[in-house]
Amino acid sequence: MSTTPILFVDRDGTLIEEPEDFQIDRYEKLRFVPGVIPAMLRLRDAGWQFVMVTNQDGLGTPAYPQADFDGPHALMMQVFESQGIVFREVLIDTSFPADNAPTRKPAIGLALHLLRERGIDWTRSAMVGDRETDNGFARNLGVRAFQLRTAQFGGEWDWPSIAHALVDAPRVATVQRDTRETRVRVVVDLDERAEPWISTGLGFLDHMLEQLGKHGGFALQLECEGDLQIDEHHTVEDSALALGQALREALGDKRGIGRYGFDDAQVLTQEADATLPPVVAASFTLPMDEALACAALDFSGRPYFVFDGRFRRECVGDLPTELVPHFFRSLCEGAGLNLNLRVSGDNDHHQVEACFKAVARALRQAVRREGRELPSTKGVL
Question: Which of 122, 242, 250, 351 makes an SS bond possible with 177, Cβ 3.0 to 4.6 Å?
Fold first, then answer.
């Protein structure tokens, strides 16, 4: 039997902005929270149904007449319906906090009847609110909680990111790697494209890591505090190890991924260095001015790195060129990645940057979702 996930949604501060007096009792107070309608449309199209659950302190008393509530509420519902957003149920508790009513969030008395329905997918259901009481409601109901980011109550989420988390089921990972030599924190989201944010203390390494995120097509944040007063080695190595670990964790069991990163182009000659063998198919070939880099990779679970190239300069910017292949070797160790990388050219800046961009493009292809099957006859990667 197919089941449907439910998105439980608070009202004031979540669907519509909450005024200072906490009562939306006039039409001019009605303001929608930014991004709520597009996000809910994404969720609707992905199969979610919506249940509003709201505490309205003293609704129906002289302090908060029912008529004052009904007009703005009806207009809000009309706007949602005009956009194709319909609430399966609207559950309103009118008690005061001191009443300790079983129907008042974080208690789940208003939703108990839903627990008896067999057609609800509770594993994917969630609660969106702006207060800790909404988080408590989610815990009591046994569903995932999303607390909207507000100046008054904190929170980490906005509506677009909630829709992304629920609809895309993103492959994300956060890795904290602390040693006596470095402190590295990496956050990746393989299913979101965002501007990379990098800080390692090495300007050129930052620039290269930005290429991995930008051309790899995934969100990447990486911060490293390393012992640069000694040299650059530990910062480069540990950044690569932590990034590789984050990629491995984000991929999980690797079901549905492309696994391999390559293209079908063939390059039959190496104009820049005739002593190098020709570059053939099963590699991602990327030019940068006179430089040419080719990367072929496999998320096999078996780390292996092969590098073919030569640099003439000791450093490009503040990055020693000898650490470029070491970065990719460490990345392979952290990610369980097999990478063959070849580069040629006259300008070392171009060669190094072409390497990072070629690997990024191969990563984009390898981590792309193509279904749910495991791309291995072994049954494990």
Answer: 242
